[in-house]
User: What shape does this take?
Amino acid sequence: GKTPPKKDEL
Amino acid sequence: MNIFRFLGDMSHILSFVILLLKITQGKSAAGISLRTQELYMIVFCSRYLDLFWNFSSLYNSFLKVVFIACSSAIVYIIRFKSPQKDTWNPELDNFPIQYLIGPCAVAGLLINQDWTPFEMIWAFSIYLEAVAILPQLFLLQKQGEVENLTSHYVAALGAYRGLYLMNWVYRYFTEDDYLQRIVWFAGTVQTGLYIDFFYHYYQSKRGGLSRPVKLP
Assistant: This one.
């Protein structure tokens, strides 16, 4: 399934 | 990284520069909502707690520190520094921010990614950022006429949000694993809050004129 989004945005 | 996100971040930095220049060079915080600036400080301090354990890039970590430092400096100057502190009018800038912080905290507790404490805090920061501009918009509305630098400040913030929307669309179509419902929802609400302002901004700046923005 989908992995949780990486927190790569500000 | 894509061009929309990069320009969005630059536009965000530009907004800080405009505001810092205005209050340090102009020696006045008139027309600037300290309430909004305090909300941004809360937003950045809570969202970027992960500076201590998440590392995505030097760019990201550096900007996180810059955002916390800039918003804290702005709050410090308006609240404590002379002569700026005497130009802040608490009767005009009196939006009840507890009605923004409370519901956002509840929303963060209830609607988040995976029920860990940081995800709750992170979601809270996303919700709060979406509405943090409201005290500033209400203050401008009360004043009717908006000074040029203040209008450029709000415009830079609005541009940042608009560019982030485009960044999300771009990432959705170019990345397989990119899905961020909370961020998209809050970001769309946030961008929507600027639409009315941008209409009046455009009206007063078109044709190369630099008239102050008038709000009805």
Observations:
- The interface with chain A takes residues 5, 9, 12, 50, 54, 56-57, 60, 63-64, 67, 113-114, 122, 164, 167, 177-180, 183 of chain B (CB under 8 Å).
- Chain B has a mean pLDDT of 95.
- The beta strands of chain B are 145-146, 213-214.
